[in-house]
């Protein structure tokens, strides 16, 4: 097993690896492993209503009441959506909303939280 570097922020030796990131459990600092590529070249570049780039796993907030087709419920302004997944197409965010379930959203109706 290779020796992981200590945390650059607090110096803790208890860092661990999660995919291409190193994480410090003591101060919650995350950084990229040297030599790892930060951006996937095949990942779609999708931004929110204010131009912030989104990535898989982000948390977003709905900025407009959204009526759900085929149902009488509405996704209210300010609803937080955790763990989004970016997909190709018109509705480019795949997510689960508490109390509603799985659905797709357009990035123009969300802001990065």
> Gap between N and C termini, in Å?
37 Å
What is the level 1 CATH name of the largest domain? Mainly Beta
Count of DSSP strands: 13
Number of helices: 0
Q: Could you spell the SSE succession in H and E letters?
A: EEEEEEEEEEEEE
Percent in strands: 25-35%
Number of domains: 2
Q: Could you give the order of strands across the largest sheet?
A: 1-2-3
Q: Which bin fits the share of residues in helices?
A: under 10%
Average pLDDT figure: 86
Uncertain segments of ≥5 residues (pLDDT<50)? none
* Major pleated sheet: 3 strands, antiparallel
Superfamily (CATH H level) name of the largest domain: SH3 Domains
Family: Belongs to the YjdM family.
Domain Protein YjdM C-terminal: 47-113
GO molecular function, one term: hydrolase activity
Keywords: Hydrolase
Q: Your description of this structure?
A:
Helix content is 0%, strand content 33%. It contains no helices and 13 strands. By secondary structure, the protein is mainly β. The strands form five sheets. Strands 1-2-3 form a three-stranded antiparallel sheet, with no helix packed on it. Strands 9-6-13 form a three-stranded antiparallel sheet, with no helix packed on it. Strand 7 (66-67) and strand 8 form a beta hairpin. The chain folds into two domains: 1-38, N-terminal domain of TfIIb, CATH 2.20.25; 59-112, SH3 type barrels, CATH 2.30.30.40. The termini are far apart. It comes from Vreelandella subglaciescola. Keywords: Hydrolase. GO terms for molecular function: hydrolase activity.
């Amino acid at each position: 097993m290779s020796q992981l570097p200590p945390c650059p922020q607090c110096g803790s030796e208890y860092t661990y690896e999660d995919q291409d990131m190193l994480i410090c459990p003591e101060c919650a600092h995350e950084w990229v492993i040297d030599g790892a590529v930060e951006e996937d070249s095949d990942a779609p570049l999708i931004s929110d209503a204010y131009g912030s780039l989104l990535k898989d796993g982000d948390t977003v907030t709905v900025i407009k009441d959204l009526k759900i087709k085929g149902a009488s419920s509405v996704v209210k302004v300010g609803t937080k959506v955790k763990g989004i997944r970016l997909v190709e197409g018109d509705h480019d965010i795949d997510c689960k909303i508490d109390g509603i379930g799985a659905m797709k959203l357009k990035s123009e109706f969300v802001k990065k939280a």
